[in-house]
Amino acid sequence: MARPESSRRFQTLPQQPGAAAESSPLGAAQNVAASASSKARALQALLLRTSDTIGTALFREDSRIIDQSAWLDECTVTHVGQGGSFLVRRMEPKSYPPPNTVLTDHKVFIVKSISVDAEVSDDSTLWDAIDIEVRALLHPPFRSHRNIVTLVGLILDPYRQSATYFPDLVLEHATHGSLADFQASKDDPLPMRTKLQLCLDISRGLRILHECNVVHGDLKSENVLVFDDGTGGYLAKLADFGSSFLESSNLATALKVVTKPWEAPEYATTMSAESLKLTDVYSYGLLFWRTVMDGKNPFTLAPLWLTDIRAMDDCKRNSHFSHKAVEVLQSYIPSSVYEELDVCKSVFDCTLQFDPRYRNMDRAYAILERKLSGTENQFPDVRSLAGALPQNENVQPVTLPDPAFDIYELSHRLSWDVQVQFVEHFEEIANVPERAASSQSMSVRGASFALFRCYLHGFGVMVDVKQACFWLTKAAQKEQEMALPLLWRFHDALRCPLTISWREVMMILNLAVSRGYKDCMKDMERMWETLTEEERGEAGRPWVKAQQLYRTFGCGAGLTCFLERNIRQNFHIFDPEQLVQELDASPQSVSQVVVNNLGHGILHYAAASGAVEAVELLLDGYNCDINSLSTDGETPLYCACRSGHFETTQALLHRAANPCLGTHAGATPLHWVSQFDEDKVRLVVDALKCAGANLEAEGGVPNSGPEGIHNPAGTALLRAVGKNSLAAVHALLAAGADPLAGGRLTSPIAFAALLLLPSILDTLLTYVGAYRGPDSLLDRLPRLDEIIGIGSARSMHIENRVTLLGHLFRSNVFDTFAIFRRLPLSLWTQRDWQSKLSTAWNTGYEDIVEAALYHFPPSSSQLVGPLQKAVLRNHEPMVKILLDFGADVQIPFEDSQGRRFTLLQLLCQRLPNIRQGIGVAKFLIDRGIRIETASGGTWPALSLAILARNFDLADFLLTRGADINRILETEYALPGLPGPINVTIFGRAAWIKKEEDVGSFRYLIDKIKSQDTPPSSRPSFFIGSSNAITIFHAVAMISSRSSPGVIGTATRTMMDLLLAIREFNVREKLDHAGEVGITALHVAAMSANDEAAIALLENGADPNLIAMGHFTALDILLLTPRTAPLDAQAAAALRDRISIIERNIRVCGGRRETLGSSAQQPLV
């Protein structure tokens, strides 16, 4: 018999338009893989290839991920522009509202994508550009700033025209486009005041960048967007941060990308971070110049008349360039606005200076702000500069915190396989040699901390506290910011022995204290108790020195603004005699001295450092303003309280310091009372109250470290609760603070319950008389179900509980629930509180569940739902707890269609993102659940596990005697035969719907091939209740009408797997017809399954066997009616497949048995 033509040759037939995806087997497989997992892979690529910081903002409650990216395909697209790396498009949806809440407030978007034609040597350059832009736009101060463009979201599908997985950036749409386009489109020039207002907006945006240690790097009119401001005017916002610098290191560098002629003269030289900021100031001066001249290039106008770039560069190097800028402006603007020349000249003087030392962005901002506010004739003070920053901003470096791998969100988004890939990638980075680490986009310390979280939460690995502590130690040794304060606390709480010396741990804790983590001093004391007498003698009392370090060098909050390297002019504040000499020799008056870039004066410096003699000297001898304000609005009293210096605070209050003036981010000195020693807290609170402090003033105390979740904006009492300071709580209550302020769910009482602080909670409840239960009080107290529901989102995760509570993280749960048990019944016996607790049960807080069950024993029926959820999540500790408290494993789960599943069947349908393991299955079987139970249209547990690709469970069930060849009820029919066909799981696994389903088929093939598989666990070649139907029939039965690329690829894979088994690839099995008289080749002809037909013919199947008494395979191919409704493309593809099968059959000697009037063309 002649051999058939190869599948590859037949695939070269002419293709219909749009059928290219099917034409190439490799291309089809690639397209299938991309469409099936693009979001997961793009998400993985984003987090693995970009910085450690992005995930913090991407995956919290206000997530910016846009999942419904297909909806954006239905948009009207307008090309906006294209640069070397990015393509920018304007997209206006045809339907509204959008399905994603992120998009709700935007009817038009700008989508910024990596260009297909990006001219770069490798992807790393493009990833760096995305990394920098996303990090900048997601930094909290920028996200809420009115003069920084808003990043609406990220689309994690790959850009359609490329094979990469770069995310698309979705930005808010600027009504008027860029400032350059906006001015160019105007027939008449904008009023001068409007132009100055736009420049003021730009200066505000630039100042917040610099405050957060970000250098824009490419400031020009094209990178400024213009919006309507809602009042009939215009609003300018900075955009395009792809050339920015985000690091606050001391490493010297140079600008990466500039646009001539809008760059500073020194742009190509190597500079420090502070010097780089000054290049932005110069570029701002050029932008200002261009803007007031209506967007024209001033270099090309009279009297300069420059057109050559080199001549422009020479002009900028002239020390009198700012005067030339004034001359150009004076010759351009009409005489009617000459009065504005003085303002412009002043801005030029503090920006367009060849010597960077004479550039001053703060002064330029103040000049414009005074001009536009009508106060240009008033002497500016530091308070005017503070207006550039929104009152509630957290101005901190973008580089903190370092890692941003949000386990909670990603564990729900990613399949277990992808989670494993993350862990493997982190381990690869964390284990690289130190000298090679610089080539990695994620740092060694960031990867180590991510691994700590993975092992702690069971992300991609089984929970392993010893491994978690191992990686935490490695991260802390690398000085990873968030690992430092957690090192001893987690080892102590989880009872894991330290793997480094106690001396190194003490050094790490000292470093953490210096960065503002006060609780590490308690860790030092607790660790000191574990040392031997000899070690204690060597260690001394390290927390005493740490406290001095904390209060003096870190200002009590881990700040660096008063460190020597950041002090502009150093004064010996702890040596009064030397200080007097320095003050007397200073050319400035004491009140004008500014010691750092945050506008702190020498009195702030002394107060923050605890130099009480210097404070008294400055106030009594030099008449310093006791209430002077820094740029951020901090008074000396605020600095003293933040550092916890009692004597300094006392000295300021005795001299009538105002505790209400100049709050920072709304926080007052009263918000920092927990910083003081416990025996001093009451005295400080009383003194502040006597001085006029407002006990109920609300404010935020920024904290971006691991303790930040415990520091919400609110009253001083709420802050004291968050700091777990019982002394501060007692003092504030005694002073009259209201523990119910803020509402039932946001009061200090609710916060104490949420953070599981029983001592503080008991104190607050006793203060308000809650245990007596007056009716008027009940509606103002939080209920237990509400607390659990809120806390399950974040604060009750083990990581956050250990961070706040240390070794008490478990016992505090029981003690807090015991307090609720003492409260009036209406606060915890809500009808559905158990159902609300299922949120906590579902996410894995087994100790919280155990405490709830202990204090509030439910009935057996109330445990049904939680047990089912725990089983479905394969949460072994949770299942064990629920079973110990009397949960009934025999109560089935009923789905929406009325089908009833045992818990074992439910477990075997485990979702792809759920942890692996067989522990729960063992529990259920040991409790009496039968393995083969299946009723009401359901399948046995083994079949469900195989189809769900939970192969660890499948292997376990086989060892317990599960029948792999049990016949299943199915809805599939064999062409030409009436009724559905019931087959084994082997046959069912062949009827795939998507590419991933081949995994189940491959698992069963491996069982056949493995020498270790016992005969009872091997799938049978015959898949029906009799020997009529074989596995070849099942594969040949697949119809490729619905998804031809997927089906074709999968069919070829499955046929290759089957034919590789020697005992299957024999003539008698290829041509087996059984009692129905139909071979697999006949079935392939009926289904137009060209891949199966070719594979069978290539391996010797006989094309001339007769089916149903009359028909050969060729008869069946040409006579089978094909009446399903098909579009033109699908019909053309079907004709191609029929033609392929016909040609192969004829090559192999196939003929028609039925001729004459019966012959007809297939109906397509």
Automatic annotation (TrEMBL):
Extent of the ANK repeats: 632-658, 1076-1108
Protein family membership: Belongs to the fem-1 family.
PANTHER family per record: ANKYRIN REPEAT CONTAINING, ANKYRIN REPEAT DOMAIN-CONTAINING PROTEIN 16
Pathway: Protein modification; protein ubiquitination
Domain Protein kinase residue range list: 74-358
Alphabetical UniProt keywords: ANK repeat, Repeat, Ubl conjugation pathway
Any one GO molecular function term: protein kinase activity
Region annotation (Disordered) ranges: 1-26
Species annotation: Alternaria atra
Keyword Repeat: yes
Recorded superkingdom: Eukaryota
UniProt-recorded name of the protein: Protein kinase domain-containing protein
A Pfam family matched in the record: Pkinase
